[in-house]
Write a structure and sequence with these properties.
heterotetramer, A mainly alpha, B alpha+beta, C alpha/beta, D mainly alpha, A: Formate dehydrogenase/DMSO reductase fold, 17 helices, about 70% helix, about 5% strand, C: alpha/beta, Dimethylsulfoxide Reductase, domain 2, Barwin-like endoglucanases, 23 helices, about 30% helix, globular
Chain lengths: ~475, ~240, ~725, ~180
């Protein structure tokens, strides 16, 4: 009786937790390979084709027009010199943060639930940064001269201005893009090596190149672990610095509403907020569309990320309130006017929408464990949070720029070509993800297996408990 | 440690070229705006873009209203142009050094050919006096015949702003140098000051206490706009009345 | 397909390639090497890369301001005021600055035109010669603008010699200035014709009744200088300025006090102030006897205390000055208003004193003041046209189809004229109606002179010379008339070789004139100086003192004016200070914000916000305005400084021709005006009442100002 | 499909095709760069060296250099001043026939200046002459040249190198000579 009970308890845990539900190594490898190699369905091609058209028109054609005709095609004007391009830049950088957060911070803190989806999150980092890069280059008036922002020796004796937050920004984003790509690549090596051994044709060549001759010897594993450890620790400060620096683009300016000391952490929390939302939406899609993924991605993961989202939402609410309050008490009449304009001006709906999406919706849904474990529901919340965070950046940039110290110049902003370009970046992000799902193993198999090996049921008298052994 | 004498106050004369604008006699007639546009090849943008806040005026005349009908008053016309700040907020934020401080003339320069169009300077200008070339605005032939050859014609994607007619400064300096003398006060002036029918704008050396602009600048009730930001503007306004 | 690929296309493609290269390299010039054409023969006064400066006269209005034009490599680059010219002392208005956009306007008439086809100048000369020869002298009429004067003198001489009709001059600015009313009032009160000169600069308190002297009135640059003098606190006390006007013009915006009186009560108010001030001064003046301050206060909507306050200032100030002008005179009782306001000056005893009233100096060689035709005289002229009395009409320097109220029927009357020949530089509405357009040079390409009618203390003759060679195949009208006269023969054959010789013959008497700014022993030396200095003027004050004796004993009428039409709104058209009557084709003038509303590129109707609210009208709503004479549709600007029962529309837009920048833009408020004159024959343009109807359409006005920052629109409920 | 293309490319014929394509692209680029380095075709093969050999000073034909920003190209009346008295001008075979034709028909000669800076650079000859620079310091030795050629590209590094050298230890001068606003406005 008690044995049976213990058995059913074990069964229950096994069902719930991936780490306690081990499969043979070969079987698991096969599952991941199958998920990746599964021939694309017509639905896949339909979406892929549609997105390609959107990218071709929204991103490339519109951008070519923007370059040939000038930034006047966008909705920017005096005094709103920065518009949706910068909103999108901050937004995509924000999205990219969750990847690093999930894989690096959770890895450092040994959060075991992270294991199956670190790869998916890291891909989000890299692909998000690509979109951020696109967005910031679209913003430039003369993008063909963007290389002037890079330090390189030249006969004019001219260098980028190291006083400018934009220069820091550029350096930070470049560093982040490089390091996050490396960090994506390192854990990928054992998996592509696995894929190399299980594929033929061009795929084999492709994985052969990517795997760098990885054979899985102890020495190789040791090097890889070392490398990943170093990167996991090193990328955390990079990640924090990137979004702090992005916030300095605004905080270092003399504009009312921007010149705020809290912007650094506020932006980081905001970035995590949107990034977590995006990550969970991506997970839900992967789980719903790809083969065998219901085994790897389970309710427990949604539950765990849901908890994180709730905490981050609370933190965001705190920082938002803090920012608002501190600025209000600063007593500067222009700032006060601006804060009033945020809520009561023509874009007030967006301000309230931001609060609803970022605070009300997550708080209302994520407190309940059952709801939290429901993939579609949490994913919807994640998307709503992203809408809210996009609103937040929109309010910080074009809406706040409406108000300055020269009331004679105040104006509103009506986006123009930013809309196709913004949709283009979103489509490109999804397109890259879709392509990646067919090209690289989305689940880090070795990491899951490593975790499963460390987990075991131990019996203490009548009780069965889960024990996790230290690997590293 | 900060020594008090190191803290510059805007009341001190820090600049080289400066301006005094008497709002009490400015009639808002727009002669300065037209003169500036003609002198500096400033483009016109057409009805739609100008209504959307994209007009390229380097100098604009602001006016507000006080009170309600019938006790309504138009506030004194306020010509707003680049204040050529001694400690400008536009300068440090440009990543390409396209807007830099001229050490020799103490002006805020906008180097058009270095500008990549981040528009950060314009965001950070508290006076909102920078204008951006949103498009290549068409000036059909033969209008370009009027272009001032001393001033670069700007194309799309470049920021621009009032230069205190630096081409005139250079010309006057060059002339004085070729004649082996210093530039005399009043020998030349900016296009806006030269046109102003009310002579509301006075331009000159504020580091020369004898110059007309210094004399006018020492009157008691002048204000510098937003000097609380520490920008050390070089234009003094008199509201009068 | 391949034969369609023309060389032009090929060049276009190469151009695109070059442009792309230019963009990619970030370099300015679109091609690496540019061809340069050096001078055939370098003018001796010219150096490569150095500018040459020429003195000439501004032709944008008739004031006669002197210009110095900077030219470089044969192109006019910049206009500045001529510091020598006593009228403007080195200053210009916005229109003077933008005159270069007229010179290099992309829509000039490039060649002599017959209808839509180009002809040669020989043919053109023959056409003019035939027109002169084949018609009876009384069937030939000249209609001219108020500038330039030398052409007017020439045509007058021609008219004298050949017995054709005396040329008629007209300009919308003089119509809106009510110049005829002003000079008529001066004649009635002082017994002498002439334009009064108001020394604003020397005054301590200025009461202006509708005179928008900081915008377009008489001589804006000179009056603006006067205004600066009024306010100059360095040498004297800061002078005060009170403006009586139903809508706040940009002049009134500079006033210390703006008194929005009911249109039509100006005479009554002026007399009431006179009565109060006379009482305070203890002077008995029969002119003000009939006035009743309480009644005036009630009818005009001004508080009695305000009137008393103003009267007190006026009575006790050292230099009091009252100016009549603009919309105050453009009413059925305009002459009475002018007389009543001038009488205030008599009360202030400022005639011929610093800060007072003078009669403007007559220009050199002028014996008598001649004003342009009033609207009523133009109506007679139009009647003659319609009746077929003129077989040929020459039009120069004026665009009556646009400038005259459509209801006066100029356009229709043109059909009654056999042959219409326009000398317009631009394809304006009148040129579009003409049979021939024989374009004159632009003002900056022309010889000439302009008499300064008012604004300077000295008698001034502003001289004009070409600063650049003609850009297009245009010809000076005098040269054309001379050549045609030679062909026509008889009395038409004047003896001058060309325009310059005529000019020399005209200015020759000045050589030995006393008190000249310069004199010369011979005409060539004199002309050299005349060109170098940009004209000739005396060094002595030429203003005369009005006879003050009887003014205060005249009887004055303070009756309210009568209004045409039944509408509930007073209608005040005013001249756009930046565009005026002929600025609409200059793109930078279009882009200049109006000083009061900051609207660019369009026409608006100014309405009091309360009135608009009551009628349910918002900013940018298009309304239909209906008067007895016509109607038009125009977007609304809720203007906080206008009487609730008044609307105002600027004059300057609404062209149907006149080039790409002017065409089909805004409306022309003269469409609402018609046969409605005052006693002096001026158009009672402010004497019309109109109705307003909503149309449900919207047309966003381009404003420089922020509607949020200035009016708090869309800023939330608190602001 | 991709694999087949790849296979075809690595066989000898494919390799040749690839090399031809690469070569073609490379030569096109080289040609493009080369064309930008060619001096433009002038309407007259003007022999600078002959004029210098006769002792004509630079400033005789380009007097603007001493006075103002532009040195200028002489008007043909200036050419004609000397050449109408020179017999060779009437030689129908000599290059001078173009000058004669231009003067007689009254059409300006369309020279193409070779020494030029972009239009965002405000260059002033006078200041440089006054500072003791000689024409040949920038424009090279013309005594052996027919058509004028630039001895170097007038780029900013070249300008600055000289400015810095010229300023020497004089800080105020260095500030003035390296100020962006000295040349760009």
């Amino acid at each position: 009786m008690s044995d049976k009970k213990a058995h059913s308890h074990e069964e229950h845990l096994r069902e719930k937790h991936l780490m306690l539900d081990p499969l043979p190594r070969g079987k698991m490898n096969e599952m991941v390979m199958e998920a990746m190699m599964e021939p694309p369905t017509w639905k896949f091609w339909l979406i892929f084709g549609f997105l390609s058209i959107v990218v071709a028109y929204g991103l490339f054609y519109s951008w070519a027009r923007l370059i040939m005709e000038g930034v006047g095609l966008a909705g920017v004007n005096r005094p709103i010199y920065w518009g949706i391009f910068l909103v999108n830049t901050v937004f995509w950088i924000g999205i990219s943060h969750a990847g690093t957060f999930i894989s690096a911070i959770l890895r450092v803190f040994k959060a075991e639930f992270r294991r199956p989806f670190t790869r998916a999150a890291e891909l989000m980092t890299t692909f998000g940064l690509v979109q951020a890069g696109f967005s910031i280059f679209m913003h430039l008036g003369r993008v063909w001269l963007a290389y002037w922002l890079m330090p390189y020796p030249n006969q004019r004796m001219l260098w980028p201005n190291l006083h400018s937050p934009l220069t820091w920004d550029l350096l930070a984003i470049t560093t982040y893009l490089l390091s996050s790509t490396m960090y994506l690549f390192l854990p990928l090596i054992p998996d592509v090596a696995m894929a190399r051994d299980r594929s033929t044709g061009w795929r084999k060549t492709f994985y052969k190149i990517l795997a760098l001759g990885f054979r899985g010897t102890e020495g190789e594993w040791a090097h890889l672990r070392n490398g990943m450890n170093i990167f996991a620790f090193a990328i955390i400060p990079v990640m924090f610095s990137v979004h702090t620096i992005v916030s300095w683009d605004f905080a270092a300016a003399t504009r009312p509403g921007w010149n705020s000391t809290i912007f650094g952490p506020y932006f980081i929390v905001g970035a995590l907020h949107s990034g977590m939302g995006a990550a969970i939406a991506v997970l839900a899609v992967i789980r719903g569309t790809m083969k065998h993924m219901k085994y790897f991605i389970r309710g427990e993961h949604f539950d765990a990320i849901g908890k994180l989202m709730l905490i981050i939402s609370m933190a965001w609410a705190y920082f938002f309130f803090n920012d608002y309050m501190v600025q209000w008490y600063g007593g500067d009449k222009w700032t006060q006017l601006l804060l009033h304009f945020h809520e009561a001006g023509p874009m007030g709906w967006m301000w309230f929408g931001m609060l609803i999406c970022n605070i009300a919706v997550p708080w209302a849904i994520l407190w309940n464990q059952k709801w939290r474990s429901t993939p579609w529901l949490v994913a919807t919340v994640g998307i709503i949070i992203n809408v809210g965070m996009w609103f937040e950046r929109y309010i910080i940039i074009p809406v706040s720029l409406s108000i300055n110290r020269m009331p004679f110049t105040w104006r509103m902003y009506q986006p123009g070509i930013e809309i196709p370009l913004g949709i283009g970046t979103l489509a490109f992000f999804i397109l890259l993800y879709m392509a990646a799902s067919k090209l690289i193993p989305l689940i880090p198999v070795w990491e899951v297996q490593e975790g499963q090996m460390a987990h075991e049921f131990k019996k203490f008298g009548r009780e069965t408990v889960v024990s996790v052994s230290e690997l590293e | 440690m900060i020594r008090p004498e190191e803290i510059k106050m805007s009341s001190e004369e820090t600049g080289k070229w400066g301006m005094v604008i008497d709002q009490d006699i400015c009639t808002g007639c727009q002669a300065c705006v037209a003169a500036c546009a003609m002198e500096n090849n400033v483009t016109f943008v057409g009805e739609v873009d100008s209504g959307y806040g994209r007009s390229m005026h380097w100098i604009r005349i602001e006016r507000f209203w006080e009170g309600e009908y019938p006790e309504v008053k138009m506030t004194p016309n306020q010509p707003m142009l680049c204040q050529q700040c001694g400690h400008a907020t536009c300068e440090p934020v440009c990543p390409a050094f396209a807007t830099v401080h001229s050490q020799s003339e103490q002006l805020n320069l906008q180097v058009y050919n270095r500008c990549v169009g981040t528009r950060y300077c314009a965001n950070n200008c508290p006076y909102q006096v920078r204008s951006f070339n949103w498009r290549d605005y068409e000036r059909p032939e033969p209008l370009p015949n009027q272009f001032n050859p001393d001033v670069t014609v700007r194309r799309r994607g470049v920021m621009e702003k009032c230069t205190f007619c630096i081409q005139r400064i250079h010309k006057a300096q060059d002339k004085a140098k070729s004649e082996g003398r210093e530039v005399v006060d009043g020998e030349f002036t900016t296009a806006c000051a030269q046109a102003c029918p009310a002579s509301a704008i006075t331009f000159g050396r504020i580091d020369n206490p004898e110059s007309l602009v210094s004399q006018l600048g020492h009157r008691s009730h002048g204000v510098k706009h937003l000097e609380e930001l520490g920008t050390l503007p070089n234009i003094t306004y008199y509201k009068g009345g | 397909m391949s034969n369609k690929f023309s060389r032009r296309d090929f060049l276009k493609l190469t151009g695109v390639g070059a442009a792309t290269t230019a963009i990619l390299t970030g370099c300015g010039p679109a091609s690496r090497y540019v061809k340069r054409e050096p001078y055939m023969q370098m003018p001796e006064y010219n150096y490569n890369g150095l500018s040459t400066f020429y003195a000439t006269t501004c032709r944008e209005c008739a004031a006669g301001c002197g210009l110095i034009v900077r030219t470089s490599q044969g192109r006019a680059i910049k206009t500045e005021g001529n510091a020598n010219n006593p009228l403007n002392l080195g200053k210009t208005c916005a229109r003077g600055q933008a005159t270069l956009h007229g010179l290099y306007n992309p829509d000039r008439v490039t060649d002599p035109m017959k209808g839509d086809s180009k002809i040669t100048w020989d043919e053109a000369t023959q056409v003019v010669a035939d027109a002169l020869k084949n018609n009876k002298p009384e069937e030939i009429a000249f209609l001219m603008g108020t500038a330039p004067d030398h052409l007017f003198d020439f045509v007058s001489d021609l008219a004298n010699a050949a017995g054709i009709n005396v040329p008629v001059r007209f300009n919308a600015l003089s119509m809106f200035e009510s110049r005829a009313t002003l000079s008529k009032a001066a004649e009635n009160l002082f017994g002498k014709t002439g334009l009064p000169f108001f020394d604003v600069g020397g005054a301590q308190i200025v009461l202006s009744f509708g005179a928008n002297f900081l915008e377009t009135w008489l001589s804006p640059v000179s009056y603006t200088r006067g205004f600066a003098g009024l306010r100059e606190a360095q040498t004297k006390m800061r002078g005060k300025f009170v403006q009586f006007e139903a809508t706040m013009s940009s002049t009134a915006g500079k006033a210390d006090e703006w008194i929005p009186l009911k249109p039509g009560t100006e005479a009554m108010v002026a007399l009431a102030i006179g009565k109060l001030a006379a009482e305070m001064k203890g002077v008995s003046a029969s002119a003000f006897e009939g006035a009743n301050p309480e009644d005036a206060a009630k009818k005009s909507g001004i508080k009695l205390e305000a009137l008393e306050h103003i009267a007190e200032m006026f009575a006790h100030s050292g230099g009091a000055l009252a100016i009549p002008g603009g919309a105050a005179l453009g009413q059925s009782n305009g002459l009475a208003v002018a007389e009543a306001v001038l009488a205030l000056n008599a009360l202030a005893d400022n005639f011929g004193k610093v800060g007072g009233v003078y009669i403007s100096a007559l220009a050199p060689m002028q014996t008598e003041y001649h004003g342009p035709a009033s609207a009523q005289e133009m109506q007679d002229f139009i009647k003659n046209m319609a009746d077929g009395k003129f077989k040929v009409l020459f039009v120069h320097g004026v665009n009556p189809v646009f400038e005259l109220p459509a209801a006066l029927g100029f356009k229709a009357a043109l059909k009654g004229v056999g042959q219409v020949i326009s000398f317009s530089t631009f394809p304006d509405e009148t040129a579009a109606e003409a049979n021939y357009v024989f374009p004159d040079h632009h003002g900056l390409e022309s010889w000439g002179y302009q008499r300064v009618a008012t604004g300077a203390a000295q008698p001034v003759l502003s001289g004009a010379q070409p600063v650049v060679s003609p850009f297009y195949n245009t010809r000076a009208t005098i040269d054309l008339l001379l050549a045609a006269g030679q062909i026509a023969g008889g009395k038409f054959a004047l003896t001058f070789k060309d325009e310059v010789e005529f000019l020399q013959s005209k200015v020759a008497p000045l050589m030995n004139e006393a008190d000249g700014f310069f004199s010369a022993p011979d005409i060539n030396t004199f002309m050299a100086s005349f060109q170098q200095y940009g004209g000739w003027w005396k060094t002595t004050d030429g203003r005369t003192v009005p006879a003050a004796a009887d003014v205060l004993n005249k009887s004055m009428s303070g009756a309210e004016s009568k209004f045409a039409g039944e509408g509930e709104f007073f209608f005040v058209p005013f001249v756009s200070p930046t565009l005026a009557e002929a600025g609409a084709n200059k793109p930078w003038l279009q882009e200049l914000p109006d000083p009061t509303t900051t609207v660019m590129w369009n026409t608006w109707v100014a309405m009091n916000p309360k009135t608009a609210e009551e009628m349910g009208i918002e900013d940018d709503d298009v309304v239909r305005i209906v008067s007895e004479f016509g109607e038009l549709e125009v977007p609304v600007y809720k203007y906080p400084a206008i009487r609730p029962d008044t609307i105002a529309i600027p004059f300057g837009q609404g062209h149907t021709a006149y080039g790409r920048y002017a065409e089909n833009r805004g409306v022309n408020p003269t469409d609402l005006l018609g046969q409605n004159f005052n006693e002096a024959g001026d158009l009672a343009f402010a004497g019309v009442k109109v109705k307003i109807e909503k149309t449900g359409k919207k047309k966003p006005l381009s404003r420089l100002e922020s509607i949020m920052g200035v009016y708090g629109v869309g800023m939330g409920e608190e602001h | 499909m991709i694999k087949r293309l790849f296979d075809w490319l690595i066989q000898p014929l494919g390799l040749i095709a690839v090399s031809i394509a690469v070569l073609a692209l490379f030569s096109l680029a080289a040609y493009g760069i080369n064309t930008t380095q060619q001096p433009p075709a002038q309407p007259i093969q003007f022999p600078h060296r002959t004029h210098i050999a006769f002792g004509v000073q630079c400033l005789y034909c380009h007097p603007g250099a001493a006075r103002g920003p532009a040195a200028g190209i002489p008007s043909q009346s200036k050419c004609w001043g000397c050449h109408q008295q020179i017999a060779k001008t009437n030689d129908p075979k000599s290059e001078l026939r173009f000058l004669k034709a231009a003067v007689e028909s009254g059409t300006p000669i369309q020279w193409i200046p070779v020494a030029q800076v972009p239009d965002f650079v405000q260059f002033n000859h006078r200041a440089h002459i006054a500072a003791g620079k000689n024409c040949e310091d920038c424009h090279g030795d013309m005594t052996n040249l027919t058509l004028a050629e630039n001895p170097q590209v007038f780029n900013m590094g070249w300008c600055l190198a000289c400015h810095v050298k010229n300023a020497g230890d004089d800080h105020a001068k260095l500030v003035k000579l390296t100020d962006c606003g000295t040349c760009h406005y």
